[in-house]
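Hey, I'm writing a tutorial for new members on how sequence and structure tokens pair up, and I'd like a real worked example in the thread rather than a made-up one. If someone can provide the structure for the chain below, I'll link this post from the tutorial.
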Amino acid sequence: MRRKTGTGYSQAVPKELLDHARRSLEGDRPRKAAKCVVCGSECSPTSTESLCWVCRRLKISAWREIEQQIPAQE
């Protein structure tokens, strides 16, 4: 059996819609990752402190040590 010769094909998605989708994606460029203010490595884009995960953990550990030393001094 032979296929019918058609006059062309019909697109499932209109060309205008495809062009609009391509243009909207072109504007979404990934942002540069912020740098840690202490060591300069990449930090999380959602970080409010501008610290990488290592420096953030060190800061939290230092706070815990200080909190433990305060009762001992009193």
